């Protein structure tokens, strides 16, 4: 991974950052750019092996004359004691914490009606409670008395998040948490902002959705007049083996988002990290409680969620306008 940055090298010399989820995807790009700018970075997530491998790889990017360093610390942000230990270890190691990037998180894709409480809780605990715990611990242990800057990575949930309702709810809550903390902690000199990425491609993000291939069958249901999948004995599509064949197609859901992105391409982690560095930097010294959408306008445009044709909606109230429309439709039908 080659780190590049539009910012002045040495901008973050002697600064210390914690980046959760800093070993993969967007987090890895953020870590690489912070290192390039001279920062001492602690990356934290659950999978120790992956953390160590990323730390080894990213340390190769640090030039011998740089003040930068990278340390991997295992931490499940859902666990209060582990978050406390992450913050304490960082302070033991570096003696300060200037920046926190709450990037660790994620979800699975599922219609809300099918979600188990355990799955709902896993996503809320990770994205909302995990972010809260990290913010609270760095505040209590360091930033309360010394100030600092925090960036929370959220998501494009502005029109809800159909198919991932749990993460939509959690990210909207983090956006609101960002505003509350911006006010509560202003007097400590803490700035806190959010970044809402559009659809960002990375190998690890893609792998998270590999089980979605079989969903392609379910997605076809609205288009089938019988409103259910056919069975093999009916000579139609659904069978276990047919489904197995589509296992590889899950990651295609990233590609399926492209028509809904005004840029007509996916975003990449290296297009999120400059926005994070900007919000951490002195260039953003008057910005707090804000959310920066980094989505090429995706949130203003189209949705991948298809609503099948239906007639389930309650009828409109009878009156002259409904009557007029009915007459018009009758006439049009007659003409056609
Ligand atoms: C396609 C375009 C997407 C655009 C937007 C993209 C956004 C992104 O965020 S991409 C980044 C993707 N990366 C990740 O999501 C990585 C982190 N994610 C996770 O670790 C998991 O998704 C997690 C948040 C659910 C946590 O997993 P884990 O720690 O393994 O949780 P548990 O084993 O405790 O499972 C709890 C519970 O959750 C339910 N569940 C988990 N996975 C699924 C699934 N694929 N389908 C349905 N339900 C799932 C399930 O109930 C689990 O419990 P059990 O029932 O006992 O298995
Ligand atoms: N890619 C996209 O299109 C978008 C991504 N996002 C968000 O951006 C962030 C980064 O995602 P991205 O890089 O794409 O995907 P990745 O799957 O590569 O990154 C998710 C990271 O979060 C870490 N993580 C997950 N759960 C925990 C936990 N309980 N404790 C500590 N770390 C955890 C993972 O590490 P480990 O498994 O080792 O714990 C992993 O490093 C996530 O919050 C994601 O939801 C938001 C909008 C769009």
TrEMBL record:
Q: In which pathway does it act?
A: Lipid metabolism; fatty acid biosynthesis
Q: Which domain of life does the UniProt lineage start with?
A: Eukaryota
Recorded E.C. number(s)?
1.3.1.38
Q: Which UniProt keywords apply?
A: Fatty acid biosynthesis, Fatty acid metabolism, Lipid biosynthesis, Lipid metabolism, NADP, Oxidoreductase, Peroxisome, Phosphoprotein
Gene Ontology molecular functions? trans-2-enoyl-CoA reductase (NADPH) activity
| Compartmental location | Peroxisome
* BP GO terms, sorted: fatty acid biosynthetic process; phytol metabolic process
Which CDD domains does this chain map to?
A: TER_DECR_SDR_a (cd05369)
Q: Which GO terms describe its cellular component?
A: peroxisome
Under Pfam families, the record lists: adh_short, adh_short_C2
Q: Which reaction does it catalyse?
A: (2E)-dodecenoyl-CoA + NADPH + H(+) = dodecanoyl-CoA + NADP(+); (2E)-decenoyl-CoA + NADPH + H(+) = decanoyl-CoA + NADP(+); (2E)-hexenoyl-CoA + NADPH + H(+) = hexanoyl-CoA + NADP(+); (2E)-tetradecenoyl-CoA + NADPH + H(+) = tetradecanoyl-CoA + NADP(+)
Which InterPro entries does the annotation name? Answer: NAD(P)-bd_dom_sf, Peroxisomal_t2-enoyl-CoA_red, SDR_fam
Q: Does the keyword Protein transport apply?
A: no
Q: What does this protein do?
A: Participates in chain elongation of fatty acids. Catalyzes the reduction of trans-2-enoyl-CoAs of varying chain lengths from 6:1 to 16:1, having maximum activity with 10:1 CoA. Has no 2,4-dienoyl-CoA reductase activity.
Subunit structure of this entry?
Answer: Interacts with PEX5, probably required to target it into peroxisomes.
For this chain, the family text in UniProt reads:
Belongs to the short-chain dehydrogenases/reductases (SDR) family.
| Protein's UniProt name | Peroxisomal trans-2-enoyl-CoA reductase
- Lineage, top ranks: Eukaryota, Metazoa, Chordata, Craniata, Vertebrata
């Amino acid at each position: 991974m080659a780190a590049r940055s539009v910012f002045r090298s040495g901008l973050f010399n002697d600064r210390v950052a914690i980046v959760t989820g800093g070993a993969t995807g967007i987090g890895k790009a953020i870590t690489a750019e912070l290192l390039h700018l001279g920062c001492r970075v602690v990356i934290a997530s659950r999978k120790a092996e992956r953390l160590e491998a990323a730390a080894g790889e990213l340390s190769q990017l640090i030039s011998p004359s740089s003040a930068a360093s990278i340390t991997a610390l295992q931490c499940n942000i859902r666990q209060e004691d582990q978050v406390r230990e992450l913050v304490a270890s960082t302070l033991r190691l570096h003696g300060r914490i200037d920046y926190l990037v709450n990037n660790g998180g994620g979800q699975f894709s599922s219609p809300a009606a099918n979600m188990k409480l355990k799955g709902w809780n896993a996503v809320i605990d990770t994205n909302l409670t995990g972010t809260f715990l990290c913010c609270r611990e760095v505040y209590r242990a360091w930033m309360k008395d010394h100030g600092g800057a925090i960036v929370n990575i959220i998501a494009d949930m502005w029109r809800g998040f159909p198919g991932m309702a749990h993460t939509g709810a959690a990210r909207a809550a983090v956006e609101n948490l960002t505003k509350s903390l911006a006010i509560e902690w202003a007097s400590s000199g803490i700035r806190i902002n959010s970044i809402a990425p559009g659809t960002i491609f990375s190998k690890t993000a893609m792998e998270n959705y590999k089980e979605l291939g079989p969903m392609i069958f379910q997605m076809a249901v609205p288009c089938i007049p019988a409103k259910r999948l056919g069975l093999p004995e009916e000579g139609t599509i659904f069978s276990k083996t047919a489904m197995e064949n589509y296992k590889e197609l899950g990651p295609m859901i990233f590609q399926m988002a492209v028509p809904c992105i005004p840029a007509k391409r996916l975003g990449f982690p290296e297009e999120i990290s400059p926005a994070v560095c900007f919000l951490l930097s002195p260039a953003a010294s008057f910005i707090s409680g804000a959310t920066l959408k980094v989505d090429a306008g995706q949130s203003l445009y189209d949705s991948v969620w298809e609503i099948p044709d239906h007639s389930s909606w309650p009828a409109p109230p009878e009156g002259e306008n409904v009557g007029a429309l009915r007459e018009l439709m009758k006439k049009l039908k007659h003409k056609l």
